[in-house]
Amino acid sequence: MELKDKLITSFEDFNKELKAEHSVLKDIRLEALKIFSEKGFPTKKEEAWKFTSLKSTLNNDFSLTNSNSSVDLELVKPFVLNDTDSYKLIFIDGVFSSELSDINTENGLHISLLSDAFTESQYKESIEKYYTQVSDRNDSFTALNTAYANHGVFISVDKSKEVSKPIQIIYLATGQDQALFLQPRNLVVAQENSFVQIYERHQSIAQANVLSNAVTEIFAEKRANIDFYKLQDDSLNASLIDNTYVEQKDNTRVSVHTFSFGGKLTRNNLNYYQNGQYIDSTLKGITLIGGKQHVDHYTLVSHNEPNCESHQNYKGIYDDSSVGVFNGKIYVDKIAQKTDGFQKSNNILLTDKATIYAKPQLEIFADDVKCSHGCTIGQLDMEALFYMRQRGIGQKEAKALLMYAFTEQVIESIKIPELKTKVSAIIGNKLGVSMDLDL
After folding, report:
1. Residue 30 pLDDT > 90, yes or no?
2. Which of 256, 303, 359, 417 sits CB 3.0–4.6 Å from 336 for a disulfide?
């Protein structure tokens, strides 16, 4: 049975196993399943998926059942920010692990499992107001996640609350024998004048194939400030489809950093909707892959009101036969005057077999704007490399320093010190050098 048919026929049993949810969710799930049934999985015939094939990824006999696996803390430590005082939410094969987590929250911060938010009356108003309200309901993977969503995190920050420490969300896959299909869902709401930092990671230590179909909705009310970091450094049998949707109101600042260092196939869909004035949206990323790995970044910033800014800065380094895709779009509505939109994609190909497809786009209907986009694709600067070699720096180290310098602009914008150190260390390890790159 094909995966699409398996998901459709299994939905009834999944629905029966759920606890009694808020009544509005039943219709949302059924509508989402109908959309997925009609659309199915995207193919390369669709313009947005022109350079990314899902055929080999979907050709697995995935288990749709979440297990209650348990793992030792030592297995989780490499994937967590251990030296940072933080809240931790650890999910093992899609199921929350209270033993490995720490969600003893402070006043003004509410962290709940999504399954509890779906069933408990105290969250009813928030679920009805925010859940599925910014996500693209017609997107196949988003619709599928909406139909099956049960495991994940609901985070709400009260008015004028500055959360004192980061929140870590770790999804760990451990399945040994059967391929796993996981569908985590996160909902983040920052009320007026609030601030929060969130770190998310999907990681597989499984021997079997793993496909994660993740959706995150982020809402920033007036004058809210959100920093969101995604670290992707997975095994070669793991694939990730990650849809993130952001809605911003007046005077908000939301930044999303995406670090893609590994995995068989990674697709990052990042969508910003500016529904207010004096908004600042920041999208930054680093991709460093080799072998036959494939990373696809698809971004959209929709400027719907005047006097707003957006800044996109993506750096890519591709080795061996790896493939990268950057498809970025800035949309400016006719009333969105005084918009300042900036988009940049810089890429280095280390071999003749590595490939990058870049498609920066501007769609502007206002006349008083300042928008720009740029894309570069090239190789290492041989003159700079020669200069460093002349001064006694080994070839491998010289190449590593040049590539690190290429990514440093993005690294320097990380505001969690241990995460900055971790990203630098991963880059050093990928480049095969034993030097301190946390400069």
Report:
1. yes
2. 303
**Residue for token digits 């280390």?**
350
Residue found under tokens 């669709």: 46
Closest CA to 62 of 179, 173, 177: 179
Token pair belonging to 409: 């602009």
Span 338-370, pLDDT tens digits: 999 999 999 999 999 999 999 999 999 999 999
Nearest CA among 299, 291, 289, 292 for reference residue 260: 289
If phi > 0 it is left, if psi is from -120 to 50 it is alpha, else beta; for residue 133 that is: alpha
| CA atoms within 13 Å, Cβ hemisphere of 211 | 21
Q: How far apart are CA 425 and CA 437, in angstroms?
A: 7
State phi, psi for 85 to the nearest 5 degrees.
Answer: -65, 120
Distances (CA, A) of 409 to 28, 186, 414, 420, 433: 42, 29, 10, 12, 20
Among the listed residues 227, 276, 205, the one whose alpha carbon sits nearest the alpha carbon of residue 247: 276
Q: Tell me how far apart the alpha carbons of residues 437 and 54 are, in angstroms, rounded to a whole number.
A: 35
Answer for the pair 254, 226: CB distance below 8 angstroms, yes or no.
yes
User: In 3-state terms, what secondary structure has residue 244?
Assistant: strand
CA distance 212 to 173: 9
What is the per-residue pLDDT across 375-405, written as a single tens digit (0 to 9) for each? 999 888 776 776 677 676 777 788 888 888 8
Question: CB–CB of 301/283 below 8 Å?
Answer: yes
Secondary element (H or E) of residue 55 = helix 55-58
Q: Note the pLDDT tens digit of each residue in 66-83.
A: 666 778 888 899 999 999
- The token pair at 333 is 């509505």
Q: Which residues contact 17 (CB under 8 A, 6 or more apart)?
A: none
CA contacts within 13 A on the Cβ side of 349: 16
The CA–CA distances, whole Å, from 159 to 20, 89, 284, 347 equal 30, 23, 27, 41
Per the listing, tokens 């999504």 go with 114
List all residues 6 or more positions away from 13 whose beta carbon is below 8 Å from its beta carbon: none
**Count of alpha carbons within 13 Å of 266, Cβ hemisphere only?**
30
3-state secondary structure of 384: helix
Q: For the whole prediction, is pTM greater than 0.85?
A: yes
Between the alpha carbon of residue 167 and those of residues 94, 153, 227, 306, 406, the distances in Å are 18, 11, 10, 32, 29
